Amino acid sequence: MRRSRIDYGRLVEGALRTVVRDVLERLGKEGVSAPHHFYITFRTRHPGVSMPEFLRDRYPVDMTIVLQHQFWDLEIDDQGFGVTLSFNDQLHRLRIPFQAIKVFADPGVEFGLQFTLDDEGEGTTSPDPARLPVPSARPTEVREDPPEGGAEIVTLDRFRKK
Question: In the beta sheet, which residues pair with residue 39?
Fold first, then answer.
């Protein structure tokens, strides 16, 4: 009988990606209500990401989008989501697989998830905290000053063997 190890990290991250899917499904049905708004950081070169080339050129590694006031046609399926956003006063469609998401945050209620496994199950390098889209991290492209305090990012690294 072969004994295999249970990959708890992958199981937990899969469950947490389901949370992201469920929240986006609710957003698609009900819209955004205060205090909620969502920052989603994703890997722009991940397989299945569809976005305009000018955005991929500008954000060659990762990009953060905000779902709050101006987004259209949010569509969610088991693999990911599509959304239309305005860039330079022009509408563009993005398709983002859930596996491409690195950070999901709702700063309005101080909630955040940080995904640390890549597609092969190995840890990715830790992101620069200054680029995390949560109030305490002061993202570079926030339109308003975030509230004091900040969101707690749930990361699986604290449970991994070093």
Answer: 66, 105
With helix as H, strand as E and coil as C, how does 75-103 read? EECCCEEEEEEEECCEEEEEEEEHHHEEE
Confirm whether pTM is higher than 0.85: no
114-160 pLDDT, tens per residue? 998 765 444 444 444 344 333 323 233 334 344 444 444 444 454 44
> CA 91, 92, 98 angle in degrees (round to 5)?
135
Which candidate, 58, 66, 136, places its Cα nearest to that of 104?
A: 66
Distance CA 38, CA 47 (A): 23
Q: What is the DSSP letter of 50?
A: B
CA angle 22, 20, 143 (to 5 degrees): 120
Distances (CA, A) of 160 to 7, 92, 143, 157: 11, 39, 36, 5
